[in-house]
Write a structure and sequence with these properties.
single chain; 96 residues
Length: 96
């Protein structure tokens, strides 16, 4: 992870949320594929507020992943086999 992501930036976060909203508006019936892996735990702000705010936008969409880590997080594509399948993702209270 680069140093540019070291600190939370409210402006970048808001811009990201607006872009996600626009994509979801364009693809209203699409499933969501989560692929963030363990990086979520490297920066406290990635879980809250970032992921928490993003997940609020996903209401009504099915959440999918490419398998989960041993900690229950959706695997990052660089950490999976080419034979991985897309599966339903269920949040645990400690990974949401």
């Amino acid at each position: 992870m680069t140093d540019e992501l070291k600190d939370f930036d409210e402006k970048i976060h808001k811009t990201n949320l607006e872009k996600i909203k626009a994509i979801l508006a364009e693809f209203k019936n699409s499933d969501i594929l989560l692929c963030y892996g363990g990086v979520l735990n490297k920066r406290k702000y990635l879980k809250e507020p970032c992921l928490k705010d993003i997940l609020k936008l996903f209401d009504g969409h099915k959440i999918k992943c490419l398998g989960t880590t041993k900690n229950g997080l959706p695997k990052h594509p660089s950490r999976i086999s080419t034979k991985s399948e897309i599966i339903d993702f269920k949040f645990k209270t400690d990974n949401k």
